[in-house]
Specification:
The chain is mainly α. Helix content is 78%, strand content 0%.
């Protein structure tokens, strides 16, 4: 079996990733995006809150807390 060098391996990985995406329907693609994002978010609540606030702002954090059933005033008390 032929051994690939690093540039060849990178090129093959890129083409394979494109192939996988091209063969997915929108529902599968959205599920994959959700799963990947969810798996890479912090598990610790305080770290998650920091990430939301740092990347999307205080208003978004409050909206997400409220949508989760946590009133922002509970968080800030």
């Amino acid at each position: 079996m032929m051994a690939l060098n690093e540039p060849q391996s990178d090129a093959l990985r890129e083409k394979f990733a494109e192939y996988i995406i091209d063969t997915m329907d929108m529902k599968c693609l959205l599920q994959f995006a959700f799963d990947t994002i969810h798996e890479n978010l912090p598990v610790d609540g305080n770290d998650l809150i920091t990430e939301i606030r740092d990347n999307y702002g205080e208003e978004t954090l409050c909206e997400l807390l409220d949508a989760t059933g946590i009133t922002p005033s509970e968080y800030y008390s």
